[in-house]
Design goal:
The chain is an alpha/beta fold. The chain is built from 16 helices and 29 strands. The longest helix has 18 residues.
Length: 562
């Protein structure tokens, strides 16, 4: 019997595809105790993670993760961390993230992953908004100083732990200020090694419970200050669909999701569902992204299933894929942004594999996807997963007809499904704005075809209204991405006194191309010939890079302001 069958039951269609899932997790369900320690006792020698940097490699078994997380539990208790405390983790792709988050789940502390790209003002906002009591931060780069300066302004931050990184050679050339952080009240994480490697589930009533908060993520904040999406312990179970039915992980395979631990895609693809299925995850702790090195890692470690955001795939197809052995790959997936058909077609041509697209948010798990056994349609992000009852609604909350664009909503009239966030922490007004009338409103727009496949249009704020037409930016971006001169692009609406708005394209050119009026005209004609002429970009700007959130999403709001 598979470990996950203790907590859920799959119901299959006659053709073997997933029809439904029934969850039956006990009130005491805890990912750390029930999954990590579960495998640590049943199959202690099973590989849990392969971790690699450019200079070092390590393999961790489930037995290792059980013992490491136990040591960290005992260490954090000694440091003053307790159930319900909010603990921020800023750990890049360091291997320590995995046993630390497991330990915090066992303790019932609330984990707040964050990226090392945050600056002092970002930390101050997050510390105060979430009431952060403890921070565990990498010594890599300059983020430690930013966190320290912020902590001095926030009285709630009582515990500061630094993950040194000396053993990776990451501290060469460190500033004197950075090396003196231990004098500012930071303690060295390596002290965990001095503690016992046994930690059992408490029996005195203090153990974390299934429906209590486990994890908080700050949203990307594309239009305002980031909100805090709060998830309970059951969130981890809902990622079973992500791992088994979308990533298609196998117990003896190796799954690689390209994601930094500071954003939600990391636990989507490098933790919960994969370990629930007993699969090994691969983590590449790189400094600067290099598509050729990444491709070499796929070949060297015989990666079987792979997931990355469309941006990574766009860079991959610009490399010479013929120089890399990708024969170990069995399944590839993407999420984070809508996938351009041009990227799909080139990867299919090179590897023989179609990229299976998926859609979800910080507030959800995998919501719409091309699951195992389905036949993907070009340009579609798939069908709703069995966990969620997805509706496409107009501004009044009524379902729209087939072929009509509507907001993606999740029906919660019969109760909140596993995986959906519980609230925006300390923000009742925003929670009420998005969760009302029996629906969770995602703010994303799509249309559905007669076979039930969903096609992404854009954020509700991104829809362009020009001369009576409603234009979704993604379709135009997809056409532009097919032109060899375009590396990246973003389409927005520009105010116009006659048409209301006109279409504007902001473009990053591929190597070897230079922006010119002639190229602008060429791109405009290219779009006119590929889609309805009224959709062509009347304004084109060439830029060196597009503004993006810390999670890599394009900030169209910033482009509109400019």
């Amino acid at each position: 019997m598979e470990l996950y069958q203790r907590f859920l039951t799959e119901k299959l269609n006659e053709d073997g595809t997933l029809a439904a899932i029934d969850f039956h997790a006990p009130e005491t369900y805890n990912f750390g105790f029930d999954v990590v320690d579960g495998f640590g006792k049943l199959e202690p020698n099973r590989r849990a993670m392969i971790w690699a940097s450019d200079t070092e490699e390590r393999i961790f078994t489930f037995g290792d993760m059980m013992r490491l997380s136990a040591k960290i539990c005992n260490y954090l208790i000694a440091e003053g961390v307790r159930k319900g405390d909010r603990v921020m983790l800023v750990l890049r792709r360091h291997w320590e993230f995995w046993p630390i988050i497991t330990a915090l789940h066992k303790l019932g502390a609330i984990v707040i992953p964050a990226t090392d790209q945050l600056k002092e003002k970002d930390f101050v906002y997050r510390f105060n908004a979430a009431g952060v009591k403890a921070i565990i931060c990498t010594a890599y780069g300059g983020v430690l100083e930013e966190a320290e300066h912020a902590a001095r302004k926030c009285t709630d931050v009582e515990i500061k732990i630094v993950v040194d990184g000396t053993h990776r050679g990451l501290r060469s050339g460190a500033s004197e200020e950075r090396l003196n952080t231990l004098d500012c009240g930071w303690t060295d994480f390596c002290e965990y090694e001095n503690y016992s490697d046994v930690y059992s589930r408490p029996t005195d009533g203090s153990a974390p419970m299934r429906d209590e908060p486990m994890l908080m993520y700050f949203t990307s904040g594309t239009t305002a200050y980031p909100k805090i999406a709060s998830h309970e312990h059951t969130y981890s179970l809902a990622h079973f669909v992500t791992a088994k039915w979308w990533h298609c992980v196998e117990k003896d395979g190796v799954h690689f999701t390209v994601a930094e631990t500071g954003w939600g895609k990391a636990v989507w693809g490098k933790l919960y569902g994969q370990w629930l299925c007993g699969a090994c995850v691969f983590t590449y702790d790189f400094d600067r992204f290099d598509q050729d090195k990444l491709l070499d890692m796929i070949a060297k470690h015989r990666i079987t299933t792979f997931c990355a955001p469309p941006t990574i795939y766009r860079f991959m197809i610009k490399a010479d894929l013929s120089k890399h052995d990708l024969s170990s790959l069995k399944y590839i997936t993407t999420a984070g942004e809508a996938l351009n058909p041009e990227v799909y077609n080139k990867l299919k041509e090179t590897t023989g594999l179609g990229i299976m697209e998926g859609f979800g948010q910080t507030e959800t798990t995998l919501t719409v996807a091309n699951l195992k056994g389905s036949t993907p349609k070009s340009g579609s992000m798939g069908k709703p997963t069995p966990i969620y009852n997805v509706l496409l609604c107009d501004s009044d909350g009524r379902e729209v007809e087939v072929g009509t664009a509507g907001e993606i909503c999740i029906d919660i009239s019969k109760g909140k499904p596993y995986g959906l966030f519980s609230e925006y922490y300390r923000n009742a007004e925003e929670t009420a704005r998005t969760v009302h009338d029996g629906l969770y409103h995602t703010g994303d727009v799509a249309w559905r075809d007669e076979d039930g496949y969903l096609f992404f249009v854009g954020r509700t704020d991104d829809i362009i209204k020009s001369s009576g037409y409603r234009i979704g930016p993604f379709e135009i971006e997809s056409v532009l991405m097919e032109h060899p001169a375009v590396l990246e692009c973003a389409v927005t609406g520009e105010p116009d006194p006659v048409r209301g708005q006109v279409v504007k394209a902001t473009i990053v050119l591929a190597k070897g191309y230079e922006g010119s009026d002639e190229l602008k005209r060429e791109l405009q004609i290219y779009v006119k010939n590929a889609t309805a002429p009224y959709k062509y970009p009347r304004i084109i700007d060439f830029v060196a890079e597009l503004p993006k959130t810390i999670s890599g999403k394009i900030r169209r709001t910033e482009l509109r302001k400019k």
